[in-house]
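INTERNAL AUDIT FORM
Audit reference: QA-55
Scope: verify that the stored structure record matches its stored sequence.
Auditor: D.O.
Record contents follow.
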Amino acid sequence: FANIALTDNVVRFATRRYCDNPLIVQGPGAGPEVTAGGVFADLLRLSAYLGARF
């Protein structure tokens, strides 16, 4: 992971098939503003699911 940019997203899949050499998927991230917006939207959705009223 030493060669990734700070804004990249990286997912590592370690499965039976990929146990010795895990599958790594890497690509550009959305950036801090978009990520924060997504997290906030998820929190609102969770709050509504738990019964909060806005």
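Auditor finding: record pair retrieved intact. The chain has one domain: 8-49.
Action required: none
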